[in-house]
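User: Some background: our group keeps a shared notebook of sequences we're curious about, and every so often someone picks one and asks for a predicted structure to add to the entry. Today it's my turn. The entry only has the sequence so far, pasted here. Could you supply the structure so I can complete it?
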Amino acid sequence: MRKFKVNLSGKTYFAEVEKVADYLYRVKVNDSVVEVEVEEAKIKSLRKAESISRTADLGEKVVKAMLPGNITKILVSEGDAVRAGETLLILEAMKMENEIVAPSSGRVREIRVSEGQRVETGDVLVVLE
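Assistant: Of course. Here's the predicted structure to add to the notebook entry:
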């Protein structure tokens, strides 16, 4: 969480900003809390997800690894309903955690990786239907 001091029209406000997702922030000013979506970042996040997925013959979405790394956390289970942009799992690469998100809404048909597993670029991680 980051803290800011903001001067606006001669008044001073103290704000706390917490990143909730790639494009979603929770902002607290005094005792008021609001969630703020950064539209440009949301579009970029969804485009990134689509760039790492391909449509399979059966109308499924296959989510692939965009770079080599280790699966550190799986956040969904087979059979779960997911929304576009929802984080499916965390892939650690080059000491950075990368959120792998659903390219579209659907149901998790198959998870092809496990926590701690090493993956290479292009490996199938999750299949959605």
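Suggested note for the entry: The radius of gyration is 18 Å. Residues 39-51 form the longest helix (13 residues).
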